[in-house]
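Explain the record.
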Amino acid sequence: MAEPVREELSALAAIFCGPHEWEVLSCSETDGTVFRIHTKAEGPMDVDIPLELVFHLPINYPLCLPAISVNSEHLTRAQCVTVKEKLLEQAENLLSEPMVHELVLWIQQNLRHILSQPETGSGSDKCTFSASTTVDDGLWITLLHLDHMRAKTKYVKTVEKWVSDLRLTGRLMFMGKIILILLQGDRNNIKEYLVLQKTSKVDVDSSGKKCKEKMISVLFETKVQMEHKRFLAFEVKEYAALDELQKEFETAGLKKLFYGFVLGLVK
């Protein structure tokens, strides 16, 4: 971890020192640092709105944008997505410098203005813009491996909701004990999906208690290449045999991905 980032995290821990205001969720030399900040911002009618902000600082931060997730029981999912997009827009102006505290201050000062904008108009504009700018250079593909799903029905519904909210496509694939998630879409949205996957209580443990996903691994990620299929939707599929799973990858132009990463999971 670079020294400026270490100093930033130390400063943030000192600033957000109240009960449950600050929590480091994971820290890795390869995946970077994920942490959660609980704060409040002034919304419409001068009402304070609690916000849960999850930041993922990749190893090359602050030379690249952090991934950001926004949650609040007082906001709709669409409003949370809008707030996240506004934060990322602001973050682009702060590249190369530690920015998390400035982003938190900015949203505290501007949440009321963001929420006062018509949701339906801005939402439809954003969808049109996103669709028109989703070109090959901006499209990424990521392959994830899950160790298990105990609460399968609930888990699958949660994954489907996340990918829908983040406008991702791909596959959730089951073959025997192998569970794979293939995601295609905007790289920042894929990063936010990973934040949700790692920080939400999406499964249950052996005693039936809700728990976070601790056994997920990123097998592969890259920009979508010319030979790769463009997925138009996200589908949940079960495969009776390895050759069916292999055919899925080959049809998607991902034969090398299958032999390089998937085949080794078969025991």
The helical segments are 3-15, 77-92, 100-116, 119-133, 152-165, 187-199, 242-251, 255-262. The chain has a mean pLDDT of 83.
